[in-house]
Amino acid sequence: MIAAMNFKRILIAAVLAGLALPASAAETAAPEKAAVCAACHGPGGGKPILPEYPSLAGQYSNYLQHALHEYKDGKRKNPVMAAQAAGLSDADIKALALYFESQETTLFTPKIPSHKAR
Ligand code: HEC
């Protein structure tokens, strides 16, 4: 009985240790073009300068790419972001999206096991 309880504790500790990997271990290096984004979205995209500006940090890269393509194509209308997205290539958009996805965030975004960076 006691042995079984200890085993359970060890198992729980092991699971928790596995989940507690530092987020920084998975961080992606900042693309050069991320510097301009920080002017409004904050360092790492996680501290916007105004409350109505969205946080990019920790958002799914496929969502961020989708949003940036829509600003660029004019499907999502925002004059500020249209100007920002106009100069981004597909490769820039992908690199920026992967970078911001990897940044630490205070937002809660559930992990989807089947989610793969695209
Ligand atoms: C001058 C300020 C400013 C700069 C610089 C800026 N943004 Fe934005 N960004 C905004 C604002 C304001 C919004 C909200 C627009 C809206 O309502 O659609 C936004 C929205 C976004 C969104 C949509 C987020 C969501 O949750 O839907 C993405 C993605 C984004 N920005 C990426 C970037 C990237 C990448 C850069 C750098 C290349 C950048 N932004 C530079 C102001 C800025």
UniProtKB/TrEMBL annotation:
SUPFAM superfamilies the record matches: Cytochrome c
Molecular function terms, GO-annotated: electron transfer activity; heme binding; metal ion binding
Entry keyword set: Electron transport, Heme, Iron, Metal-binding, Signal, Transport
Residue ranges crossing the lipid bilayer per the database entry: none
Signal peptide (residue range): 1-25
Protein name: Cytochrome c553
Gene3D superfamilies membership: Cytochrome c-like domain
Taxonomic source organism: Panacagrimonas perspica
One Pfam assignment: Cytochrome_CBB3
PROSITE patterns, alphabetized: CYTC
Keyword Chloroplast in annotation: no
